[in-house]
Task: inverse folding
């Protein structure tokens, strides 16, 4: 999770057919690594999908600066496989 414009945001790939089908609302969550291993305490949070294209691009830019070639390589293979368009940017309200 990274902060862009002072708000906690994250990027994920939806396994459903589209963003509207993924569940949002109040859920407990915790910081985790790439493999899903919990790295922090559980917290209650409310989540919502970010639809603003400018903000989405800003989130991608932050991730590319932070993860460099690894993020770019992930983007490349996500585009090849068609998963890139299924990614979602989610804002967490803590």
Result:
């Amino acid at each position: 999770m990274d902060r862009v414009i002072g708000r906690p945001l994250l990027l994920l790939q939806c396994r459903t057919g589209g963003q509207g089908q993924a569940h949002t609302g109040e859920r407990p969550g915790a910081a985790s690594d790439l493999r899903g291993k919990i790295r922090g305490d559980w917290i209650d949070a409310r989540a919502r999908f970010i639809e603003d294209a400018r903000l989405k691009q800003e989130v991608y830019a932050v991730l590319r600066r932070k993860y460099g070639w690894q993020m770019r390589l992930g983007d490349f293979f996500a585009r090849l496989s068609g998963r890139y368009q299924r990614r979602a940017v989610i804002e967490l309200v803590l």
Notes: The longest strand covers residues 7-13.
